[in-house]
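Reagents: none. Just compute today. Bacterial DNA polymerase III alpha subunit NTPase domain-containing protein.
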Amino acid sequence: MSNKYHYKAYKEGLLQRMAIQGLREKIDPSDENYAEYEKVIKKEISTLEKIKFDGYMLLLADVVLVSREISGFVSCFGSIQNSLTAFVLDIVDVYEFDKNNFKNFTPFAKKPVVNILISSYANGGCVGYIKHKYPDLIKKVKKRTIIFNDDLIIKFIDLGIEIKVKETQE
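Predicted 3D structure written out:
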């Protein structure tokens, strides 16, 4: 694990509790693979805790939730894409339940980047929310990009949806 981060979850075990609850909401606990999924989540979270990235995973879940409230549509991809934990926390929309995919989630060898697709009218609100709630974690803010002290990068990518909707209404 080459990178170490400095944003541990503020409550011990919070990420795991939220992830297991999310798993229960997405997968019936009586599903024959449920125990295996739970095991994978616990392994991912253990890795995140070792590199002190578990707080950022909670931050991402918070940011995506608020972005959905502001924008209506949000989709994420990037460094956390193959994480079952990110899927059950609703950070990413799609997760392929394939045994080989479980092996794809590894600690970041380079700076993690999370891309959040939202409509342009929501960019300011989403960036403003992060600046207001997490000011001590932010190193730099560029228009639609936030760089955190530990070099996690969140990029808000403009879908231009309202422009396309407006064009179809004319």
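The radius of gyration is 17 Å.
Action item: order primers for follow-up constructs.
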